[in-house]
Amino acid sequence: MAGSGASEDQKFCLREVLDTFKLCLSQNKEVYLEHYVAGWRGLVKFLSSLGSVFGFISKDAVNKIQILVGHLDGENGSQYVTVQSMVKYELENELVDLSKRGSHPESGCRTLLRLHRALRWLELFLERLRTSAEDSKTPVMCAEAYNESLAQHHPWVVRKAAGMAFPWLPGRTAFFEVMNVGTPEQVVAMLGEALPLISEVYQITEDLYAQHNLLDLP
Ligand SMILES: CCCCCCCC/C=C\CCCCCCCC(=O)N[C@@H](COP(=O)(O)O)[C@H](O)/C=C/CCCCCCCCCCCCC
Questions:
Q1: Best of 48, 60, 111 for a ligand 1 pocket test (most atoms within 8 Å of beta carbon)
Q2: Is ipTM over 0.95?
Q3: How far is Cα 143 from Cα 151, in angstroms, rounded to an integer?
């Protein structure tokens, strides 16, 4: 079974990811980068438990997480507390490549944008899982969510590789078990709790990026 062999503290738990996304939003609806990154770490833990066929995806996500952690832990870390402060700081200091890749290939803004687009995939995929019937196929749900979101930003070769990985996803029952929540009904209930939070974080970031014309960063 996917996820077997992992020790308790390495095991993915949907509740933990949900708690992390809850911590993401400040009272005035700013997105804390530290918790956003922690949410992604939890999701990557899940992806890693699915086997090496998803390794190229985890590797890219881990690389982006590390870039953001590097900013958070760097000498200007105080500017990276929220996504809002990061955008302000990087734009004011011309630290973002706006039209073509140049001297700032690892800006926080372009790196977060890649994870932000993936968050939309996650939202679409989880909504499909939540409303799925017992015999629904996870690869189909995953591919549909991917085609509606991330795929539009990926070149042919990445889309092809992703399409080859999806059939290796565990079935719905195994998938729900790896979430470590309880019965399928409890998983569905928790997804119902998680989705509005993920959507809110997504929408706040989307609006911020749109407001600053950052949605197509190279
Ligand atoms: C709540 C539990 C259930 C769901 C758990 C899902 C766990 C998912 C964890 C991670 C998701 C993948 C994050 C992928 C980030 C991709 C960022 C990206 O778009 N990178 C590309 C562009 O980067 P630059 O070149 O511009 O720097 C890069 O080219 C991508 C390379 C790797 C391929 C990405 C394919 C993404 C497929 C997404 C579906 C993941 C399927 C997982 C199924 C559980």
A1: 60
A2: yes
A3: 9
